[in-house]
Amino acid sequence: MDEPTRVLPDQLVEHARRFYAEGRTPVAPRRAATVVLLRDASAGLEAYLIRRVASMAFASGMHAFPGGGVDPRDASGEVGWAGPSPSEWTARLGLEDDAAARAMVCAAVRETFEESGVLLAGADPQTVVGDVSGAEWETARQALVARELAFSEFLAERSLVLRSDLLAAWSRWITPDFEPRRYDTCFFLAALPAAQGARHVGGEADGVAWVRPSDAVERGQRGELAMLPPTLVTLAELSGERSVTAALHA
C-alpha cells in the first residue's frame, strides 16, 4: 500500500518557518520505545491500538501503540536477558552504545506490560509467562507505572528473563526540530503471546482496539482515527503483510 499523504496544518508550517527563521535551538529529544503488538485473526493480521486520554500533554486523543519514555533505571540494575545481546541491539537500532540499546529494549518490554498488560518475559530463554492479569501481577504493573518499582527488580523478584528475541526492530522516528516536545523513538513489532491477552488497563488510555492495519489507515485518512504520522505510516507499512510471521520477517 502506498504511504499515506501527510499534510501539515498551516499553523504548523508557520511555526516551523518561524523556528528556523529565528535560529532557535532544538529541544533535545527524549528516548522512547513503542511496540506494535500483532495477532492473527480470521480477517487477517491485526494490530493493537490504544487511544491516549485527552488530558495527556503529548498526543492527547491520538491512537497509538503501547509505549513511552525510557526510564533512567532501564539502563541500570541487572536484568535477566534472553535473545540478541545489547551489543546486537546497538547495531540494529543505530544507538551510541550497549547501555542505550539495553535501556531501549527494556523500555519496550516494560511499557508494553504497563500499557497493555502483555509481558514479553519467561522463566527461561525458551518460555513465555502465561496469564498475567491476576491481582498480584496487576499490583506489580501499577507499581511500575508509578515508578515505585524498577523493571529489573520486577523481573528479579519473579525469576524472569526479558525475551528480547520476541521483539523485531521496525523503524526509528525523531520528532522534528521545531516541536517543543521531541522524542527519539524506536518502533518494535511483537507477536501477542499465545497464553496472554492484551487488555484495557486504563491510565494513559481511554480506549483500545484490535484493528487490521489497512482498515486503520483508511479510517485515519478519512479522519475517523486521529493518529500521528509515525503510527499511520507504520500501519500502512504493515498493511501488505498477511500474518504475524510474515510481518516479523519483513
Describe it.
It contains 8 helices and 10 strands. It is of the alpha+beta class and 250 residues long. The strands form 2 sheets. Strands 1, 2, 3, 4, 8, 9 and 10 form a 7-stranded mixed beta sheet that branches. It has a 3-stranded mixed beta sheet with strand order 5-7-6, with no helix packed on it. A hairpin with an 8-residue loop joins strand 8 (168-174) and strand 9 (183-191). The longest helix is centred in the middle third of the chain and has 19 residues, at 98-116. The protein starts with 9 loop residues before the first helix and ends with a helix.
Question: Which secondary structure elements does this structure contain, and how are they paired or packed?
Answer:
Blueprint: H1 10-21, E1 30-41, E2 44-52, E3 63-64, E4 67-69, E5 81-82, H2 86-93, H3 98-116, E6 121-122, H4 135-145, H5 151-157, E7 161-163, E8 168-174, E9 183-191, E10 205-211, H6 213-221, H7 229-238, H8 244-249
Parallel strand pairs: 1-9, 5-7
Antiparallel strand pairs: 1-2, 1-4, 2-3, 2-10, 6-7, 8-9
Helix pairs in contact: 2-3, 6-7
**What's the order of the H and E elements?**
HEEEEEHHEHHEEEEHHH
Low-confidence stretches: 1-7
Total DSSP E strands: 10
The protein's oligomeric status is single chain
Mean pLDDT metric: 90
Structural class label? alpha+beta
**How much strand content do the residues show?**
15-25%
Cα Rg: 18 Å
Largest sheet: 7 strands, mixed
Give the count of helical stretches: 8
Measured as a percent range, the helix fraction is 25-40%
